[in-house]
Automatic annotation (TrEMBL):
The keyword Endoplasmic reticulum does not apply. Residues 80-175 form the Toprim domain. This is Recombination protein RecR. A zinc finger (C4-type) spans 57-72. May play a role in DNA repair. It seems to be involved in an RecBC-independent recombinational process of DNA repair. It may act with RecF and RecO. Gene3D superfamilies: 3.30.60.80, 3.40.1360.10, 6.10.250.240, RecR Domain 1 (1.10.8.420). One of its GO terms (molecular function) is zinc ion binding. The lineage of its organism: Bacteria, Bacillati, Bacillota, Bacilli, Lactobacillales.
């Protein structure tokens, strides 16, 4: 079916989003065209601003509009614990259970030799730098329960343990292959409480 170029381009943009097929992209594109000018302008502005104004925190690697992020600068947080996660969405998931008051470190990925991702390609170096700070007593590794997440946890554990810092891993309440960000709050809370030293 032929569409005028502007709408074809809009469909193409929507179809690049995760979980959006051609059919949904077409529906969204036509919906957008029917929106008020004001709403479309705001939508475009928000897209640009999210991309332009967000950066990675230079300390923890979390997505933020201020560097360092508001977790790293929060003096009321416990500086003896660092919770290591794969991405910023996991930080939100853990913050939601309101049980953890320490710091975070966002890896922005996992080690995956199969896909050519080495420790140097993810945010590991800055974690090691942070651990030189003697305040840190425990590193909780909360990478996802996937083979890459496991491999990353083992790699980090071997790297950190010689320093004498306690390394723990979330309990196996989380199903194998599951993502932290999709776990329900009770499961997540249990996984944090029952974390095991590795
Ligand atoms: Zn930060």
């Amino acid at each position: 079916m032929y569409y005028p170029e502007p709408i074809a381009k809009l469909i193409e943009s929507y179809s690049k989003l995760p979980g959006i097929g051609q059919k949904t992209a077409t529906r969204l594109a036509f919906y957008t065209i029917g929106m008020e000018d004001e709403d479309v302008n705001l939508f475009a502005k928000n897209l640009l601003s999210a991309k332009r104004d967000l950066k990675f925190c230079s300390i923890c690697g979390n997505l933020t509009d201020e560097d360092p992020c508001n977790i790293c600068t929060d003096e009321s947080r416990d500086r003896s614990t660092i919770f290591v996660v794969e991405d910023s969405k996991d930080v939100l998931a853990i913050e939601k259970i309101r049980e953890y008051n320490g710091l975070y470190h966002v890896l922005q990925g996992t080690i995956s030799p199969m896909n050519g991702v080495s420790p140097d390609d993810i945010n590991v170096k800055s974690l090691i730098t942070r651990l030189m700070d003697s305040q840190v007593e425990e590193v909780i590794i909360a990478t996802n329960a996937t083979s890459e997440g496991e491999a990353t946890a083992i790699y980090l554990s071997r790297l950190i343990k010689p320093s004498g810092i306690k390394v723990t891993r979330l309990a196996r309440g989380l199903a194998v292959g599951s993502d932290i960000e999709y776990a329900d709050e009770v499961t997540l809370l249990k996984a944090v409480e029952n974390r095991k030293e590795i």
